Amino acid sequence: MPISLEFHSPDAELAQRFSKVLRDDPDYAAELGQALDAGRPVAAAHFNGAPVAVALLDGDTLAWMVVHPATRGRGVGRDFLRLLEKHHGGALALPEKCRR
Q: Which end of the chain has fewer surrounding CB within 10 Å, N or C?
């Protein structure tokens, strides 16, 4: 599944745009809202123009990433992380829950 990486500046419609990706993850949806309110940019993976994953970076750390439920198990998360690291210019630190 070929995906593209986009960084989105905060705007009022962004939380709604990612609502399908985050539909099964209300805690991350709330964190996304807080990040947008704070003016933080959001990274997203898109397939055919539609968001299939969303991530929030905290400097050199991947704070969290969520892949759309319908696209899980297809390598989207792996490819998204690779694109994020390529854009960043090196490896990102992963949150503790991802290092188990």
A: C
